[in-house]
Design a protein that fits this description.
Blueprint: E1 5-11, H1 15-24, E2 32-35, H2 44-47, H3 52-55, E3 62-66, E4 79-83, H4 102-110, H5 118-127, E5 129-131, E6 145-149, H6 155-167, E7 182-185, E8 187-188, E9 190-191, E10 194-195, H7 198-203, E11 212-215, E12 220-226, E13 229-235, E14 238-248, H8 251-261, E15 264-265, H9 267-273, E16 279-280, E17 292-293, E18 296-300, H10 313-326, E19 338-342, E20 353-358, E21 378-385, E22 393-395, E23 406-408, H11 415-432, E24 441-446, H12 454-464, E25 466-467, E26 497-499, H13 514-529
Parallel strand pairs: 1-2, 1-14, 2-11, 5-6, 14-26, 15-16
Antiparallel strand pairs: 3-4, 6-8, 7-19, 9-10, 12-13, 13-14, 17-25, 18-21, 18-24, 19-20, 20-21, 22-23
Length: 531
Amino acid sequence: MSNSQYDYIIVGGGSAGCVLANRLSADENTSVLLLEAGRSHKHPLIAIPLGYGVTVYSPQFSYQFRSKPDATTHNRTHALPRGRALGGSSSINGMIYIRGQQEDYDLWAQQGATGWDWESVAPYFRNSVDQARGSNKWHATGGPLRVEDSRNHYSICEQLIETGENIGFPRNVDFNSASQEGIGYYQSTMKSGLRWSAANAYIDPVRHRPNLTIKTSVNVSRIAFDGNRAIGVATGKGEFTARKEILLASGAYASPQLLQISGIGPAKVLNNVGIDPVQVNESVGQNLQDHAGPPMAWRMQSEGDSVNKNLTPLGLIGSALRYALTRRGVLAMPAAAVGLFVRSRNDKSRPNLQFHCLPVSGADSDDASEQQVDPFPGFTMMPYLMHPESRGSVEAVSTDINEQPEITTNYFENQNDLEAVVSGMRIAQQLADTRPFSDHVVERIRPLPDCTSDNDLADYARVHAHTGYHPVGTCRMGSDEGAVVDPNCRVRGVNGLRVIDASVMPSLTSGNTHAPVVMVAEKVADGMLNK
């Protein structure tokens, strides 16, 4: 290895990597190298919130992972984009800030991730944010991650919330407080109408620290070992050694792939790609979980019920001018305005469905060139299951990190998952059929009105469901020998190597995963600094 030595090498500049770089370099006696394969986050399409409509499916800004044909969704291959820039997926995501339910973390602890119960993780959630509403039991001010209410107010969204209340769903003014259940407005990671990614929050304020080195456009091809100790990384731009530890933070697809091509993984995978084992672990790349659901849409009565007109080529001119002057309007819109957390059945102990609702509609496609808004007012609701029982996997197919791994999604492998999504579709239709929201509805357009039976709705879900962009679990944390990492996120069977990202989550959290990933990195970094 070369003389490019650092105490810590962080592989991946996404949400977790940015947190780790900030916290570990706070010790001026510790040298930290952050390696990100993507670009800088300084780009207008990243900064403008609605830019995610372009960046998510652009190879310039995101890795275009695809699943293998999924038998549970009519053999469709699913687009599975992940961020390719400082900030990782927090630079291309929908910016919804959701911590999940307290039960999520108590379940982690029950599954063997000791020390990750709600009481233990809650301080890291609270102290990581700068809450625009002010400080209280659940939120702090002055933290790195800015969390704000929407700068846009649409009367049709208020009508939807009133409709939910009429059905019996409680109005929830803060999904990140004592209870997640109910209907209300989402908060998002924005600051004054601009995206506030993990790079904005954690890297920009400290990037000039002399003990922090940040390198973009550097792709790590393997982890180097001396016996069973990780000692460095090989890249296309040289090799770097770590005096203390290598911290892998590349996400639920890339982290298990890099472990596998470095010799840590299932025996069959290592044999298939011709890698001499450093540590055989059959769990690496297994336990993949993701949120998935089908977008549903309705044609609305008037232009005031939708922002479709503002997203036409002509409308975007006015929208861009308004945004430039006020930082408001559709260009400042997150992926959803209204959220609903509800139970698919009355016998469920807690909400297991999440809805993303927004006053826009259009053809649903993972091909950006085919994504066009409808030429009439429309409204979209997307229900998805938060706690899927189905599991997928990630397996390397060669020693080349640039060759995509084989990703198996298996979205509806478990029939219970599909039944819950169908229940969510019926709840969405109930909202559309109930006043005052129903007063604004012309007809359902996705699926068509003749799609009525459970079988019809299930088939629609199989044909149209897509990722919720929340993959986790492929480097499962636990106390058993089958876990990939221990509760301190250290890779089992080797020394000097940790995985710290969404892949270590034993099970999916209830909602969007950016906030939980930030929490995980905050907690692990704190443990490393105060060991």
